[in-house]
Amino acid sequence: METRASRRHLDANDLEAILGVTQKLAAPFDLSTMLTEVVAAAKQVLDAERGSVWLYEADSDELVMEVATGIAPVRIPCGTGLAGACARSRSIINVPDCYADPRFDSRIDRATGYRTRCMLTLPLVDHNNVLVGVMQVLNKRGGAFDADDEALAAALAAQCAVALQRVRMTGALIEGEKMRQALEMAREVQMSTLPVAMPVLDGYDIGTAFRPAELTGGDTYDVSRVDGDVVLVLGDATGHGIAPALSVTQMQAMLRLAFAMGADLATAFVHVNNRLADTLADDRFITAFVGMLDPASHRLRFHSGGQGPILHYVASRDAFDRHGPTSFPLGAMPLASLPAPTELAMAPGDILLVLSDGFYEQVDPDDACFGEARVCEIVRAARNAPSAAIIDALLRGIDAFAAGADQQDDMTAVVVRRAARVEARFARDFASLAALVAFAEDAFARLAIDPSLRTPVDLALEELFTNMVKYGTGSRADVTVAMAAIDGGVEVTMIDRDVAAFDPTRAPPVDVEAPIEARKPGGLGVHLVRRMADSVEYEYNSESRESRITLRYTRHGRAAAGAALGDGGADVRD
Amino acid sequence: MGERMFAIERDAQGAVVASGRLDAAEAPKAQAFLDGVSGIVTLDLAALDYVSSAGLGVLLKTQKRLMASGGRLRLVGLSPHLRDIFVYSGFDRLFEIVPAG
């Protein structure tokens, strides 16, 4: 007999009983207490001997009995037995004689020794029409369940369903919140150990980035000064979640301590590895780069435990060297000794790139990887920008590539760039001209500057240096000349000390249209310098009596304009 | 850019050929050679890598001297780099520059 409920008007006593139960069910019980309360309420309101609740698990499409007095949890596929039939039909099933109904499963009776006579099976459906479970009420005292009981049970079931669903959702929220808090704490620990500021190094700039993935990845980095050297660390622990975040933090702390206590590169690497091998779980390890830069000799040595590729942009060749690991990942197993570290020379304009997997392995919406070639392309285009700008360019490139695809892993970068700048001092003598030419030749090669800019640069060096020698006769100071690679060209700086001001940007103009009788060589040099540079700036410090001329040349600028001649003067202040 | 020593000499056809870098250090050598020429002189600059204002001064002085007696310098083989310098300095107006051909 299957019937739709609530045919009957509830009487005052029934209503009171249900309201009492409803009030009780509003309390913030945990799930098992709530189930006990629901069963107790049903037994009371329906005057039944026993009751039980099956909870519906949507994922497995099963009914699970969490509570039934004296009976262990049981799972049944939805659709089997009376409970399953009720879950499918979402209708009350009232069976006056269970052993006469083929859907009745007597195994529970056999297991408990209890004999079920009659049974009311009720769907528990919440306000959103979501099936929460099935309630069964057994053995009405003094008879079978009637239509009044069905109506009463239906009203009760609605209340129970809402109460149970509320508890289940709250439980899920609490679990989620606990996990979120734990992750956040791990993340906070991880972040708190990252260096706040980069060491300031003459002739170098160091940039770092840490862009966490949504789920905690296990990346860290460190840049710190130890005596004259700079220690560079990047680590990436396997897996996601709290454990890798904490183990990589532990690794970073141990390395810091080892270096602070005077350990050399190999000793620090081996000891930290061995300690991690002892403490990390057997299936865990940390890929790590540990390097030391000596900014005086420009020598950079590193060990890489499974961290790679390590990319070295070599400015003079305008190409990347690619270095693999020197050892297996930290903590994978104990190390007795290490091969020699990889050693590189950082020349002007060179860039060392240590990037975590998160960069190379970022995918686009079609699951293609960002990859090494794109990294190299972006870095090469930004090679004359500071490290921080190189990293920004990489992150922008990654975002454009990902086109909204999720970031799967932490992205961590340590980028070291030696300034693309060379400098030399020249004795105040015409005889230094040959050395100036040699210097320019070397600088152009080392900084990979466009050779088409050599002529105007050579001209500026000769003309301005010659003027300095001619007019700075009171000074014995050397003249300093520096060249720096800039986007698409070169910046040349000439510093003359202990001299009176001579501003080439304000030198009297040369009348290039004068007839030959009126033409004199004087002033022509400065005129040409101004015309051939993209820009010329002059600064004079009257206290130190220092003149500083800064010239810029680019391949798309005036110096290489070639055919497009005859348009105005150089960008000078005159 | 290969750096060549500055050199200046007559070729078999009687043209004066200058090559290498004509900078302040080499200007006196160029001046000494050009002080010895007369009439209409073809100066082949195809192998000249570089010239500064000191070199331009040598050419200007020579041009003035030759013009006073009805002669002049005819410049041939100017590279784009040299051409820029001649144009920027207005020297393209003072010399006959024979186009490459």
Mean pLDDT of chain A: 86
* Biggest pleated-sheet summary of chain A: 7 strands, antiparallel
Uncertain runs of chain A are: 1-8, 562-574
Percent range for β-strand residues of chain A: 25-35%
Provide the residue-averaged pLDDT of chain B: 92
Number of helices of chain A: 13
* Biggest protein-protein contact in the assembly: A-B, 33 and 27 residues
- Radius of gyration of chain B over alpha carbons? 12 Å
Describe how the helices and strands are arranged.
The complex is a heterodimer of chains A (574) and B (101).
Chain A: E1 2-3, H1 12-25, H2 31-46, E2 48-57, E3 62-68, E4 74-77, H3 81-89, E5 92-95, H4 107-112, E6 119-125, E7 131-140, H5 147-192, E8 204-211, E9 218-226, E10 229-237, H6 242-260, H7 265-279, E11 286-294, E12 299-305, E13 310-314, E14 319-323, E15 342-345, E16 351-355, H8 357-360, H9 371-381, H10 387-402, E17 411-418, E18 421-426, H11 433-446, H12 454-471, E19 479-486, E20 489-497, H13 524-532, E21 535-541, E22 546-554
Helix pairs in contact in A: 1-2, 1-5, 2-5, 5-6, 6-7, 9-10, 11-12, 12-13
Chain B: E1 7-10, E2 16-22, H1 27-34, E3 40-51, H2 53-68, E4 72-76, H3 80-89, E5 96-98
Helix pairs in contact in B: 1-2
Describe this structure in words.
The complex is a heterodimer of chains A (574) and B (101). Chain A has 574 residues and is of the alpha+beta class. Helices cover 34% and strands 26% of the residues of chain A. Chain A contains 13 helices and 22 strands. Chain A has a 7-stranded antiparallel beta sheet, with helices on both faces. A 5-stranded antiparallel beta sheet of chain A has the order 8-17-16-13-14. In chain A, helix 9 crosses helix 10 and helix 12 packs antiparallel against helix 13 (524-532). The longest helix of chain A is centred in the first third of the chain and has 46 residues, at 147-192. Residues 1-8 and 562-574 of chain A have low confidence and may be disordered. By secondary structure, chain B is α/β, with parallel strands linked by helices. Chain B is built from 3 helices and 5 strands; from the N terminus they run ββαβαβαβ. In chain B, strands 1-2-3-4-5 form a 5-stranded mixed beta sheet. In chain B, strand 3, helix 2 and strand 4 (72-76) form a beta-alpha-beta unit. In chain B, helix 1 runs parallel beside helix 2. The longest helix of chain B has 16 residues, at 53-68. In chain B, 41% of the residues are buried. Chains A and B meet through helix 11, helix 12 and helix 13 of A and helix 2 and helix 3 of B.
